[in-house]
Known about the structure:
- Helix content is 17%, strand content 36%.
- With 282 residues, it is α+β, with helices and mostly antiparallel strands.
Amino acid sequence: MLDKPTGLTSARALSKVKRLLPKGTRIGHTGTLDPLASGLLVLLIGRATRLARYVTPLDKSYTTTARVGVVSTTLDAEGELSPVEGPIPDEVAIRAELPNFTGNILQTPPMTSALKVGGKRLYDLHRRGIEVEREARPVEIHTLDLVSTDPAERTATFEVSCSSGTYVRSLISDLFHALGSGAYLTTLRRTRVGDLPVSHAIPHDDLTDDNINNRIIQNDAVLGRLPRVEVPEEARGAVCNGRKFPAFGVEGSYRVVAGGELLAVYRDEGDLARAEVVLCAP
């Protein structure tokens, strides 16, 4: 787990880690952070890259600060800024509006996102000055808490817990638009992915050849939210070959473990358990 600093793309952060690993090692991350954003990047190495489908959809948590009374063409500090006429919402007004942006809501992706419309990345179209219609998508905001306000600086800081695919910049922009004002993000920090906290991540600049192996967490910990099924050691070979088993009676995807080692992810289909991902060598 890597603590990415601001001013660095996720791709560049990943490339540094790749240089510290044996040549040819597969590596990938499970959710891009913009250069403006800092915080937790969960990196998957080697066979663990097969687990991306289970990690990428996990809920995320963020801390973010917004400047109020000003809007940005990118919804963050990198865009062109314009003041908004009207009073600045106070703390009482902001708190009163938060329930309307909590729970299941519809959100329109920003033009600066990496989503594709007509085969083109939205951010590429935005750079060319082209704006296209985007379909609103359902997301879930588990919690949206106002941490503090600074009337002198016209800023407000929030903590957000949300489903994967949520655009925090859009959430905060929409919140203040509903309050008759506007805002853009000045900072954004990802503090959690699933059950994995940024406090357990290593700062990007502290990562070296000497400590990288000590910072790799076990695959089983990454998938801690999936149910766990323990099989005897004599079943290891069959699991590592991806063989079917009688159904274990577990709903959804689950971890198959032997001797404390995560071997595979299985799913019951009717009377049989079938491998979705196999991590151990046969």
